[in-house]
Amino acid sequence: MSWLATKRLLVTGGAGFLGKHVVQKLRERGCREIFVPQSKDYNLVELEAVKRLYQDCKPDIVIHLAAKVGGIGITKKKPGEFFYKNLMMGVQMMEQGRLFELEKFVAIGTVCAYPKYIPAPFKEEDLWNGYPEETNAPYGLAKKMTLVQAQAYRLQYGFNAIYLLPVNLYGPGDNFDPESSHAIPALIKRCIDAVENNEREIVVWGTGKPTREYLYVEDAAEGILLATEYYNKIDPVNLGSGFEISIRDLVSLIAKLTGFKGQITWDTSRPDGQPRRLFDSSKAEKEFAFKAKTNFEEGLRKTIEWYKEQRTKGLLK
Predict the structure, then answer these.
(1) What pLDDT was estimated at residue 179?
(2) Could you read off the pLDDT of 255-281 as tens digits, one per residue?
(3) What Rg, from alpha-carbon coordinates, does the chain have?
(4) Which of these is catalytic: 42, 54, 114, 139?
(5) With contact defined as beta carbons under 8 Å apart, do 130 and 186 qualify?
(6) In what order do the strands lie in the sheet with 161-166?
(7) Domain 3-170+215-243+276-293 in CATH: superfamily?
(8) Widest pairwise Cα distance in the chain
(9) C-alpha to C-alpha distances, 99 to 55, 61, 94, 157, nearest whole angstrom
(10) Is residue 170 annotated as a catalytic residue, yes or no?
(11) What would the mean pLDDT of 148-166 be, rounded to a whole number?
(12) Helices (H), 133-278
């Protein structure tokens, strides 16, 4: 039986895309006391709601996944909201956890915390070697402050907080809302819409030149739980797949897998985002034996199949 199975766990964001997979894997490890707060009951931006959450749950361990997230369009449109909400949720959850004398706090960062211009693959030591990519810097910096807080609390209070940096995630259960979705679900929806409506063209932002690394959501959940069980150090840790693909090749692959055979037009007036994203995830393998298992094309197929099923059931458009 897993050590975690003996603990009371609070998983903020546990009803979300990544959170559902984390909760499922906790149950597979024998965990029974898992508290998943709903945002309608606990607004974690508000201090009194955070205090009430700790009193109601009385956790031993917190896995803090709750975040205000979105693609390049929405982060550019609402930078203040993304900064404030993510900063306040992280700071207050950790501070109240310290006061509550938690055994462990697991903070989840973002690839957006990394500087815009650093050599790939990104190493954890590179985190402070420049300013993040401008379109999502407020979000990235707000999440990065949780790392500063975790390290400061460990040094001053002996508080066991760890900080993990997953690369871009994808998989079944992702957000397919065109207003706020990330690249993969947005492209899947656009291609499937085009096929169903007999459209001969799709328009994609940017030049297609930037590269991205993607991590299947189930792999990310496994990495988070391995770190929760076995990692107790001050340094941040990357969680990646080691697979890199250009946006141009990504669009071509999604078009092929969804059956879209029309023209792909690049709107170069739109931003590209960060030029390159690729992690060095060797520390995760060394410290807690994490290694991504899901082949990228296989993961894409599963994601597309899930989305098609949801459309057939009328649960998604």
Answers:
(1) 79
(2) 999 999 999 999 998 877 778 889 999
(3) 19
(4) 139
(5) no
(6) 34-35, 9-12, 61-64, 104-108, 161-166, 237-239
(7) NAD(P)-binding Rossmann-like Domain (3.40.50.720)
(8) 62
(9) 12, 13, 9, 10
(10) no
(11) 98
(12) 137-157, 183-196, 217-230, 247-258
User: Is the peptide bond preceding residue 121 cis, with omega within 30 degrees of 0?
Assistant: yes
Q: What is the pLDDT of residue 40?
A: 94
What is the tens place of the pLDDT at every residue in 181-213? 888 999 999 999 999 999 999 999 899 999 999
Tokens found for residue 231: 């990692």
Q: Record the tokens describing residue 198, joined without a space.
A: 């007999």
CA–CA dist 268, 143 (Å, integer): 29
Query: What is the reported pTM?
Result: 0.94
- Return the bridge partners of 105, or none: 62, 161
Which two three-digit tokens encode residue 106?
A: 């697991």
Take residue 12 and report the two structure tokens written for it. 């903020």
Residue type, 139: Y
Q: How far apart are CA 59 and CA 3, in angstroms?
A: 15
At 169 the three-state DSSP class reads strand
Given a contact cutoff of 8 angstroms between Cβ atoms, the answer to whether 57 and 50 are in contact is no
